[in-house]
Amino acid sequence: MDRALALAALGAGTTSPNPMVGALVLDQDGQLVGEGYHCRAGEPHAEVMALAQASGRARGGSLVVTLEPCCHQGRTPPCCDAVLAAGVARVVVAMADPDPRVAGGGIARLRDAGLEVVVGVAEPEAARLNQAFVHRVRSGRSWGLLKWAMSLDGRTALPNGESQWISGPMARQWVHRLRGRCDAVIVGGGTLRADDPLLTSRGARTPEPLRVVFSRSLDLPLAAKIFQDDSTAATLVAHGPQASRAAQERLDRLGIERLELSQCTPLGLLEGLAARGCNQVLWECGPTLAAAAVRQGCVQQVAAVIAPTLLGGEPARTPLGPLNLTRLAQAPQLTSLGWQRLGPDLLWLHGLDLGSAIGP
Amino acid sequence: MDRALALAALGAGTTSPNPMVGALVLDQDGQLVGEGYHCRAGEPHAEVMALAQASGRARGGSLVVTLEPCCHQGRTPPCCDAVLAAGVARVVVAMADPDPRVAGGGIARLRDAGLEVVVGVAEPEAARLNQAFVHRVRSGRSWGLLKWAMSLDGRTALPNGESQWISGPMARQWVHRLRGRCDAVIVGGGTLRADDPLLTSRGARTPEPLRVVFSRSLDLPLAAKIFQDDSTAATLVAHGPQASRAAQERLDRLGIERLELSQCTPLGLLEGLAARGCNQVLWECGPTLAAAAVRQGCVQQVAAVIAPTLLGGEPARTPLGPLNLTRLAQAPQLTSLGWQRLGPDLLWLHGLDLGSAIGP
User: Fold this and answer.
1) Which contiguous run of DSSP H or E holds residue B246?
2) Is B43 a catalytic residue?
3) Is B351 on the interface with A (CB under 8 A)?
């Protein structure tokens, strides 16, 4: 199963809205005769790849797969059909598929057909690998990672707004790789105005993640790079119903895609992006939007890059706007998921419980 | 020399204004026959302790010592006399004593007497061990360490001022041990009003470090714990010439010791504390005084304790007030000296060059 999980991880960043899945086929003697992983939505599932490679040697053997085989017709036929056709005797599954179209149906179908099915091998590892997919399927919202780079004294810019660059080249390369594992990168209008970022993975992901601008007012700098350069990555402007008709039409004339949200909140945005098949999104926004996302439980992980410098200054920008806390006991507690050096900088990654949503 | 340095370190926190010194005596055959370290100003020096333990076996042997033996009469007689009287043939010294009363004079005296003197063995380690002493002797100012505890988003309090406790019990115990290695702990009037801290090492150091309140206005909460409890630790109020006579007299009536500085600045304070024999001081102050200390080059190390929580809020207190930077390239660069976990918290320690002084 460890090998199947490693195969599955090869699909990181490109399988959405599907999960990452890896599969192995062992023949009757336990010899490895096939392996595969899901690479991209619409392309063959891992089980089908592995069984095709195994060909006739799968008969009477075992299939090891990181997620329950599907039993529904999607863009590709149900995997259960292929498993039954191959004549394997035993299927080992890390975890059931939380997708309501499957949700144990695949396992039941294989068992009904007389196959031995073992479920739950390395389940925590499999669930962690697909945490974003599982979160989206269960909650109807994309899984969010909030990232910032700050000085040791907690500043994300100088008092005059200068912020490029606080972290070093290695940290910035890490951000590009991080974007490569995300389906969308979200900024607000303020970040667009202050930093004019490109927001791509610099080729680490094909296609590039969707660039999302979240703007209540649609008062946006239309000369920004992400609106000018639409060849490398797609850009989407999400807004609420209160955005002026004139501003909407201005975007439409420029051919910039819009997503009108019924609720102009981080929660509304993540529901909209989940509906578009985004499993994992990256919040690369300023303090006000970041704090709203934390308050609404739209942040599942926090990645803080801390640069060994001091910026000082009360009016200087900080990572998070108001969380509306009145007592320290209310502060969301984070779980350290590890750290690493990125050149002179330190990356400290944390998990944040969904239960930590504070309020609007 | 490694063993001599380890012996020297046993004096950490209690030798000021003297340096930490460790010494070994080897007999003619290279056998260890004596060792000692300097424990407290006014008590025997390391060389004298080690030679006394070695007694007659020192004759013709070697003395290994982390700092040049002194050649002047202080509270104890010159160590050079004891070295010569013991009849050792060879002296191995890690580094010359920067104290202008010694400054190579001890080495010269031993060489003049015909002893073989080797200087510079493990010199970087010896200089690091006594960095505070060396800094004070060379600059005439105490060596400063600035410490703060903040949330992952760089806050040292909630917007409403609540700050106890952001870090966990292990981090707070570490702070007590840190105070135990310092000669003085400095706060401003604001910290006194906000936190009413005790500022002791909780017994890690005897005597407790001097508690210093730095106050321009002398508008101080006289009911604060550090003024009420003078049995565990001494308290000193440092102020400038512009403090009102009435406020000064109020302190005098309460028997609270004052230090009137000609310059009411961090620099003036560290000169005053150096003159009182403080080698190493700990800045435990709020953002305004901390930033002033950084700007004036009064901070040689920064210890940031980062707690895995989020506090948010633009008006919430941050570690550092204005550094008056207008470009990121002006920001002081720190040198990572290592990190450690303190329970759930992370301590990241940095060095800051004296050359990084920015201005008043």
Assistant:
1) helix B245-253
2) no
3) no
One domain for residues A190 and A322: yes
Tell me the pLDDT tens digit for each residue of A244-291: 999 999 999 999 999 999 999 999 999 999 999 999 999 999 999 999
- Decide if A93 is inside a domain: yes
Interface test with B, best of A172, A283, A298, A310 (most B CBs within 10 A): A310
Q: Is residue B135 part of a domain?
A: no
Q: Which residue of B has its CA nearest to A148?
A: B153
Q: Are B291 and A312 an interchain contact pair (Cβ–Cβ within 8 Å)?
A: yes
What is this model's ipTM? 0.90
Q: What's the whole-number average pLDDT of chain B?
A: 93
* Cβ distance of B302 and A151 shorter than 8 Å: no
A321–chain B Cβ distance below 8 A for any pair:
yes
Is A338 part of the contact surface with chain B (CB cutoff 8 Å)?
A: no
d(CA A315, CA A296): 26
Give yes or no for B170 touching A (CB within 8 A). Answer: no
Best of A152, A158, A358 to mutate (most B CBs within 10 Å, chain B): A152
Least Cα separation, residue B172 to chain A (angstroms)? 16
Question: Is cis: bond before B207, omega within 30 of 0?
Answer: yes
Chain A closest CA to B7's CA: distance in Å?
33
Same domain flag for B117 and B161: no
Judged by phi (left if over 0) then psi (alpha if -120 to 50, else beta), residue B18 lies in: beta
How many other C-beta atoms can be found within 10 angstroms of the C-beta atom of residue B351?
16
Q: Which of A43-52, A224-233, A320-329, B304-313 has the lowest mean pLDDT?
A: A224-233
Strands (E) located in B248-294: 257-260, 280-283
Nearest-5° angle of CA B169, CA B170, CA B173?
85
The enclosing domain of B318 has a CATH number of 3.40.430.10
Pair (A248, A110) in one structural domain: no
- The angle that helices A105-112 and A79-86 make with each other, rounded to 10 degrees, is 20
Q: Within this chain, do residues A113 and A231 fall inside the same structural domain, yes or no?
A: no
Q: Which of A102, A129, A156 is the last residue of a domain?
A: A129
Over range B88-105, report the average pLDDT.
94
DSSP strand E in A32-141: where? Answer: 32-37, 62-65, 90-93, 116-119
Residue-wise pLDDT tens digits, B178-190? 999 999 999 999 9
Give B-chain residues touching A339 at CB under 8 angstroms.
346
A111 contacts A80 by C-beta, under 8 angstroms: no
Residue B358: per-residue pLDDT = 63
What mean pLDDT is predicted for residues A229-236?
Answer: 87
Rg (CA), chain B: 23
Question: Given an 8 Å threshold on Cβ–Cβ distance, is A162 in contact with B304?
Answer: no
User: Least CB-CB distance to B312: which of A291, A335, A339?
Assistant: A291
Q: Which domain holds residue A17?
A: 2-129
- Cβ contact A153–B154 (<8 Å): yes
At B97, the pLDDT band (50, 70, 90 cuts) reads very high
Q: Are A332 and A356 in contact (CB under 8 A)?
A: yes
